[in-house]
TrEMBL record:
It holds the Pfam family HTH_18. The keyword Cell cycle does not apply. Keywords: DNA-binding, Transcription, Transcription regulation. This is Putative HTH-type transcriptional regulator YtdP. Residues 195-293 form the HTH araC/xylS-type domain. One of its GO terms (molecular function) is sequence-specific DNA binding. Signal peptide: none annotated.
Amino acid sequence: MLVKPISKINIERPLAYFKCGQFVSDEGWKHKRMKLEKDYEVIIGLKEVIYLQVGDTQYEIKHGDVLLIKPDVEYFGYKASKAGASFFWLHFFPRDLTQTESGDEFISHLFSTLLTEQKNEINHYVCLPDFFSLPYLDKPIILMKQILDTSNTSYYSTYAVDYLVTELMIELTDKYLQPLIHNELLHKEYNQKFMQILEWIRVNIYHDLTVQKVADTFCFNADHLTRLFKKNLGMSTIRYINTLKLSLVKELLCTSNASIKEIAYQLHFRDEKYLMKLFKNYVGMTPTQFRDTYTNTYMNTVTVDPDIPIPKHLLTE
């Protein structure tokens, strides 16, 4: 298993929020040349492609891609983006020293803690490579919108946004680690064909999926397939499919102006009424209530990274 070097950032104290935004580019835009001082930056790709060179490495940041930029490394746009290219950006400060581990060393430590059920060590850190991709962005998008909202609200305590930033980094770490853990379990506990079924559903989630269609594709009886899902995941096949589809619904509600009817059609729900009923049952609120939850968000359409001076208390902590 090839794993990139991992940055381990201590979170026994919450990460310190610095600044954030959502950027949408004009035609021909390129990121300006920058170098961070003591802060870290996380970029989450939303639409089109952002071309960034960090040090000697060039990245094409698309929807679902996550880039972690560390201090003292120069980065800049090496190619122009199309109009409408967009991403979230977030700067934060660790309050303790960070570590870097080789991929092999990190995997060895990860599975030794998981197998012995001694998670104390890994609990103290968020652990991320410089670049990775996520199949779904529903929770990261929700958390980024909460961070945007909270950072523009006059809370009595600055820790309100600090804890949200920390929660986002924990969420990104969890989403990064899950495939690594699943790949390891593939050789230990999980049936290989079942993992192939999960991947096939994920890849085809925008299609009109039914339990019978999945069963036929893999030469299973539909009832046997559902028993397999309940044994391995604790849920039925249709609930798993609906959970993935509703993750996409939440993402579209946060990032587009599409109507509920349009989203239902795009994701092959029976109709918008069925989607609304399912969403309310699974999420606990209607799609409209979910979309209206975050109101004080601001889009940065002028510059990716305004030159905000670093607060003195963050430099001295």
